[in-house]
Structure formats: structure tokens, C-alpha cells
Amino acid sequence: MESIFHEKQEGSLCAQHCLNNLLQGEYFSPVELSSIAHQLDEEERMRMAEGGVTSEDYRTFLQQPSGNMDDSGFFSIQWFNLNSLLTGPELISDTYLALFLAQLQQEGYSIFVVKGDLPDCEADQLLQMIRVQQMHRPKLIGEELAQLKEQRVHKQTWNEC
């Protein structure tokens, strides 16, 4: 087990420990994550300013604390399940991530880690501006089709009564 990197919890630096354990190495320090959070704050500020620096939204935004970090060591990271068998992306909470990955591994799935500079995309830009909340969990494609068929049958049966 010595070949598996395991960074133990220190303070409230959950994001640092999660990322380093996930990536299997000491990739992030509190200072580096703080720097990334400050960069995100600045990018968010610039994007909000595009709507006008005198706008109510911009002034409200400036009065709010950072959504990317706080003084306790909290860093905001959002995870998504991009399984192509789902009807859409599924937001995964930080607390559920480890359980989710363990379940996938136990079921025999492969888990891949992607390292390096990835190209920017519209989703990244959106996630830098707002924190996403998922209202409904996406279903497996087959589940959705089966549910639609069941609803049709139920509706037909109800109409015949």
C-alpha cells in the first residue's frame, strides 16, 4: 500500500487533500489553491463588470465574500458525472465523490485521471461565474424511455376507465 499516495487531513483543507489524493501526488498546496481562488475571483469580477460597473448586480457582487474560498481553508470545487448513458451531466457533491468513485471501482469500471492544460470551454466559463445547483438527478437513458412508456400506458389505462 506504500505505492498509493495518501495525504492525511490537516485543518479544513478538504479540497487540497481531495485533489492531491485523487491525483496521487502533492500537486496543490494551500497557497496554490488560494492563488487559483483569487484568480477566479478576479475573472468573476471582470465578467460581472462587463454588465456595467455601476449596475446593481455588480455592486452586490462586490459586497459578497468569495465563492471560491474562505479563511477557513474552504475551496469550492464542482464535480460532474459525465456518463454518456445519462440524460445529462450529474452534479456530484464533495462528500459523495469518494463514495461514487469507490462504487465505480468496486463494480469494475476504470477511472482515468486527466492531467495537463485543457482547452477552455463554455462550461468552465459559466462555472467560474456561478455555483451550479442541480434540481433533478439525470436518469439513465433507458430509465427515461421506460418511464415515458409507463406514463403513456398509465394514462391510456386511466382514460379507458
UniProtKB/TrEMBL annotation:
Enzyme type, top EC level: hydrolase
Subcellular locations according to the entry: Nucleus
Pfam families to which the protein is assigned, alphabetical: Josephin
Keywords carried by this UniProt record: Hydrolase, Nucleus, Protease, Thiol protease, Transcription, Transcription regulation, Ubl conjugation pathway
One GO term describing the cellular component: nucleus
Catalytic function, reaction form: Thiol-dependent hydrolysis of ester, thioester, amide, peptide and isopeptide bonds formed by the C-terminal Gly of ubiquitin (a 76-residue protein attached to proteins as an intracellular targeting signal)
GO biological process, one term: protein deubiquitination
Family matches, as InterPro entries: Ataxin-3, Josephin
Entry's EC annotation: 3.4.19.12
Nucleus recorded as keyword: yes
GO MF annotation: an example: cysteine-type deubiquitinase activity
Domain Josephin: 1-161
PANTHER family: ATAXIN-3-RELATED (PTHR14159)
Name of the protein: ubiquitinyl hydrolase 1
Naturally occurring in which organism (per UniProt): Homo sapiens
